[in-house]
Structure formats: structure tokens, C-alpha cells
Amino acid sequence: MTVWGALGERGYLRSAWPWRAAAYLLSGALFGALVLVAVLGGLVVGGALAVLVIGLPLLGLTALAGIPVAAVERHRLRLAGLGPVPARHRTPGAPGLPAWLATRLREPATWRELAYAVLLGTLLWPLDALAVACAAGGPLALLAVPALFAADGEAKAVKLWTVHSWPAACAVAALGVVLLAAGAYALGGYAGARAELARVLLGAGDDGDRVTELVRSRVRLVDAFEAERRRIERDLHDGAQQRLVALSMTLGLARLDAPPGPLADQLARAHDEAGRALAELRELIHGIHPQVLTDYGLRAAVADAADRSPVPVDLALDLPGRLPRPVESAAYFVVCEALANIAKHSGARRARVRGGHTDGRLVLEIGDDGHGGADPAGGSGLTGLADRVSVLDGRLSLSSPPGGPTLLRVEIPCRPTDPCG
């Protein structure tokens, strides 16, 4: 539970949370003052020695002052119930102090922590001290009025008025109790906000790093998936397909040698079934990962898909050469899925595929003259293709008003890997 969460619980005043909030803010005020002295001392000494060679490294090392400050702040956050907040520092690429220093001075986390140290030493610690003084100092002074009245016969209540009787002293003490209770809640609220600010500043980049790593992991999964597809395609092409070809040839020879009769009829049917199984296997291999895409690239593979389409396709694809394999694979399967949808659902008489490589992006447009009304959420398979394109930082958009025409546009950032083709 955090101090903010404890504010809404019954028994907050009887719990340790008001004391923890006060300890968090009071320690922050003291630590911030020390940070201010240390940072100013480093800057003064480094500036004074800047005329010497040793002054420049000292000024550079001052940038690292935020690292220990951030480490202490992460531990102090536990007083407010927050934590742990991990440090977002990178692992040096090589052992040794020079590599460590180079990594720390180049990464954003170091400068973010230095900025927090400067903020703590200049602005936050006076606010922490002021919050503790207002929330606790005034009410405690009111609570001390009866003791002062008993010692001197009169007492001043926080320099506002003078108390000359016991009823007045007790009333001032009761007011102090009320203000102290209210101050405990105010102190808890401020401590929670202050701790949340520190957590956000010291943990900034956590979500960004997580998203970056997620994108990288998705790209690695796509690459692994493509490699597995190519392996399956090779195994089927070089293994099962060759065995079916040999079986078909054997059945064909046996059919020629068999005398007319029931045996010849059975061999003929077996030979036909083997031929159909071989054709289906070739279609399966082509759907997994066509060899023409591996050998000759995207334009040849798209031209082959256009030739096999039941709907006539006008092709106008201008590419400077080979593109990265993930881009070629994603673009090819988008074209194949789009042509399959055109043949199944559009009622089109003609389709077109056009595009090229401009401004560092592969742009493809697949359209038809059908009746339109295509819906990616209707099970057309385009949603999965959009996810696949998004992994490559690309975009897939569809325009298909009722009555047509339908236009599918794909944009994928990439650079040619073989400009000469």
C-alpha cells in the first residue's frame, strides 16, 4: 500500500503512515540540502580548475552526480510505499571503467537523474521543509501553549494572540489537535504527490524501453517465423514432393506394364490420385513460401501470383532491386491475400497491382472494379496482415465503399538491399 492509498483507509491517524510521510519529506529536505552543497561544490571546484587539464574531467564527472542521488531517492520512495523503481541504465559493452564511463555519459538515464538531482537541490527540498513546517510546526506550537502557560502564567499562541487563562490555553491546544490531524492528512497527500513525481522522473523511459523491447521481440519472432516457413518449404520441396514424384512415375510405369483388367484400372486411379496429391502439395509449398520469392524477389513473385489469379490482373510494379526479406515476404502475402479476396468476394472483372519504392518506403496498391463493401473485421484475413505489416513499422489501409471500387494500400519503410537488381 502507498501513502495515497492509506489516506482513504480508516485509522490513518493511528497508523504509521503520517510518521512515514513526515520522515519521507524531512529526509528529503535534509538530503536535498546536501545535494545542493555537493553539486555547487563540484561546479565551483571544477570551474576553478577548468584552466587546468584536471578541471575538465572533474566537470565531466559532475554529470554523474545524479546516479548516487537517484539511488538514494529510490530507497527513500519505500517510505511512501512506492518501489522498487529500477534504474534504467544500460549494461556497458565492455568491462572496465572507461567503458562504464562512456556508457553512462551517453545514455539518457544519466542526464535524467542529473536533472532530478538539480531539481531536488534547488526546488524540491525547500518545498519539503515548508510542508513539514506548515503541517506539523504550527499545530505543535499550539499544543505547547498549556505547558508555556503553566510555566510563565501566560503564553503567545504562534505570535497571534496572548493566552491569559487555562480555558483559553486548553482551547488553543484543542485547536492544535484539530490542525495536527488535518496537517497529517495534508502531509500524507503532499508526500504521496512528491513520491509519485520522483517515481515518474526516475522511472521515465521505463515504458518506452519496454515498448522498444516488445517491438524488437516481435521483429525477432517474425524473422524466426519466416525462417521456419522457408525451412518447411525446403523440406517439403526436397523431401515429400520428390517422393511423390517418384511414386507417380512408378505407378505410371506399372500402369503401362499391367494387362487390361481390374489391376490396370486400380493402377490408373492410384496414378491419378498421386498426380492430384502432387499438385496439391505444390500449391501448399507455394503458399508457405514460394521459391520464386527467394530466388528472384518481390516483383517476380507478384507477377507469378498475378498470372495464377482467376481475375485478370494489371501489374505495374517498379522496384530498384531486392528488398529486405521480411519486407518482401510481408508485401507478397498481402498481395496474395488481396487477390484471393478479390477472386472470392468482389465480383470484379479486373484487378490491378501497382507500386514502387519512393522516399525510403515500399508502396503497394491493390485495387479492383468489384462491388466493394469489404470489411477487414469480417474474416478476410486482412487484420492479421495489418498486424504483420505494423511489426515492420508499416501501415495498411483499406478503402471499399459499397458499390466499389476497392483499394488496398500498403506502406512499409525499407531500403533496397540490392540496388542493381
From TrEMBL:
Keyword Nucleus part of the UniProt annotation: no
Top-tier EC class: transferase
EC number: 2.7.13.3
Any single Gene Ontology cellular-component annotation: membrane
Transmembrane helix in keyword set: yes
Any Pfam family matching the protein: Sensor
Reaction(s) catalysed by this chain's protein: ATP + protein L-histidine = ADP + protein N-phospho-L-histidine
Keyword annotations: ATP-binding, Kinase, Membrane, Nucleotide-binding, Phosphoprotein, Transferase, Transmembrane, Transmembrane helix, Two-component regulatory system
Gene3D superfamilies cross-referenced by the UniProt entry: 1.20.5.1930, Histidine kinase-like ATPase, C-terminal domain
Domain Signal transduction histidine kinase subgroup 3 dimerisation and phosphoacceptor: start-end pairs: 228-293
InterPro entries noted in UniProt: HATPase_C_sf, Put_sensor_dom, Sensor_HK_TwoCompSys, Sig_transdc_His_kin_sub3_dim/P
Segments forming domain Putative sensor: 24-202
Domain of life from the UniProt record: Bacteria
UniProt GO MF annotations: ATP binding; phosphorelay sensor kinase activity; protein dimerization activity
Transmembrane segments: 21-43, 49-72, 114-145, 165-187
Coiled-coil residue windows: none
Name of protein: histidine kinase
